[in-house]
Design brief:
This protein has 18 helices and 5 strands. It is mainly alpha-helical and about 475 residues long.
């Protein structure tokens, strides 16, 4: 293990099990084994990859044609290897007479298309983006294992937390499904985890919950005078962490609000120097995204989102009549928080839904016509699908003393708040997919919480096992229902 749990960390209240040193020495092989195992699971979980929603393949293809806008609409029989006439979340390009010109702009941040470029160059529109998402997802699990190795926790806790992330959260769903939005999640989670890991590597003092600098209040305001006296020289490691987080934002915009983590955790001395260094790093790719938007759409902030809002707000009441969407509200509006928060924390599955045909017998758990229980298409409670997230609560006891805990907590809150203000709850999904945006900051808290509880005790094993079982159930249903 990179850092012993016995170095005065308050969570180390129990002697390590006899097999902990063995797990420690075998860590590189365990990490590799996890990557290979999760690749097999993610690939086998979704045997029929139709690549129905492969927007980023079309975007990469357009770039290779020297165009920013994708061909659209392309119908079956048009002579291409794929069609996209069913795409709804695109902004059609029109001429001065408001006539469509056979192309459309994608509003999504384009980094996933950059990742797919070499594959599209080789395989064209036949590129299997969903399979690539599974491959990337398995690699991200390896990154998560590396990040957790920076923490003062037992090797068994490191392994257990990684397994929870890989199979007990909706990251499994994102990786095995790999459609447009989920590929973006996978790419963003991987880059954000890299940023978190680099910040932790550069700042060992942030790992301690007691003693030293972390014994004092850790929020930036408390050290303002010292921060103003600090050198403004840029810290290279923190710049790199910020660059990675900024790149993640060019896949999923909201992860940029994890910036407070890099202000509180990382190299560079004072919080001010950390923040400036990371801020410059973030600004480079985010600034590039804004320039890309300006060059392709004429606007710094892509107008495609407003167009989608107008289209989807009309469709939502038909699919989900109990959700309230109003075009007179903004795309990001605090008035959307109550209903989205209710879904994120309290959304339940459908229990004994109506049978079709009426009167059919409820025979199996996965009977489409007459199930006993099935997930809701608009999402389910994060605490129902991944109850092991509750294991982060013991770590929060150090919120006022540990810069790691404070930074992770503020980052999670900021990202969640922005997502909750968004008009959309994530569209058709299993679980709450927006949780992928903040899971890189939640995993260290889960690991520290498990360590504080004494390692992989019965409660921990049960919560992780239930999380895995629920996600397996949800993934089977999602594929059964064609999500």
């Amino acid at each position: 293990m990179e850092r012993s749990i016995a170095q005065g960390h308050p969570a180390a209240d129990h002697d390590p099990a006899p097999d902990e040193p063995l797990l420690d020495r075998a860590a590189p092989w365990i990490g590799l084994g996890l990557v290979l195992l999760m690749l097999a699971i993610y690939v086998v979980s979704n045997p029929n990859r139709l690549n129905t929603y492969n927007h980023f393949v079309w975007q990469a293809s357009a770039w290779l044609e020297g165009e920013a806008a994708i061909r659209y609409p392309v119908y079956p029989g048009d002579g291409l290897a794929a069609s996209n006439d069913y795409f709804q979340d695109v902004l059609p390009v029109v001429d001065r007479d408001e006539d469509t010109v056979g192309r459309a702009l994608l509003p999504f941040p384009p980094l996933p298309a950059v990742v797919l470029l070499p594959f599209v160059a080789a395989f064209g529109l036949a590129t299997n983006a969903q399979l690539i998402a599974s491959l990337l997802g398995a690699l991200v699990v390896g990154i998560a294992f590396w990040v957790l190795g920076r923490l003062p926790v037992r090797p068994s806790v490191r392994l257990g937390t990684t397994v929870f992330f890989a199979l007990g959260t909706v990251f499994w769903y994102a990786s095995m499904l790999g459609q447009t939005w989920y590929l973006a999640h996978v790419v963003a989670v991987g880059l954000t985890l890299l940023a978190v890991g680099i910040a932790l590597h550069a700042d060992p003092s942030a790992l301690e919950a007691e003693g030293g600098e972390s014994h004092r209040r850790v929020m930036p305001g408390a050290g303002l005078r010292g921060g103003l006296r600090a050198s403004f020289a840029i810290d290279g490691t923190q710049l790199l962490a910020g660059l990675l987080l900024g790149l993640a934002a060019t896949s999923r915009l909201t992860v940029a609000f994890g910036f407070p983590f890099l202000v509180l955790v990382g190299g560079g001395g004072s919080w001010l120097r950390r923040g400036i260094s990371a801020g410059i790093g973030i600004a480079i790719p985010v600034g590039g995204l804004l320039l890309y938007n300006l060059a392709t759409s004429g606007h710094l902030f892509h107008p495609g989102y407003e167009y989608l809002y107008e289209q989807e707000a009309l469709a939502y009441p038909v699919m989900f009549p109990y959700l309230d969407y109003r075009l007179d509200w903004a795309i990001e509006d605090p008035r959307y928080i109550p209903q989205n928060l209710a879904l994120m924390l309290f959304g339940t599955p459908e229990i004994m839904p109506p049978c079709d045909p009426v009167g059919a017998a409820r025979s199996t758990w996965f009977d489409v016509a007459c199930p006993v229980l099935r997930p809701r298409a608009d999402g389910m409670s994060l605490l129902l699908t991944s109850p092991a997230f509750l294991l982060a609560l013991p770590a929060l006891r150090s919120y006022g003393r540990s810069r790691l805990v404070a930074g992770a907590g503020v980052a999670i809150g900021a990202i969640a708040l922005v997502n909750l203000m968004h008009f959309s709850q994530g569209w058709v999904q299993f679980g709450y997919r927006f949780s992928n945006d903040f899971v890189p900051f939640a995993l260290p808290l889960v690991a520290l919480g498990i360590e504080r509880l004494g390692g992989l005790r019965a409660l921990v094993v049960v919560l992780v096992a239930v999380s895995i079982a629920v996600n397996l159930w949800g993934n089977i249903w999602a594929l059964t229902l064609g999500w």
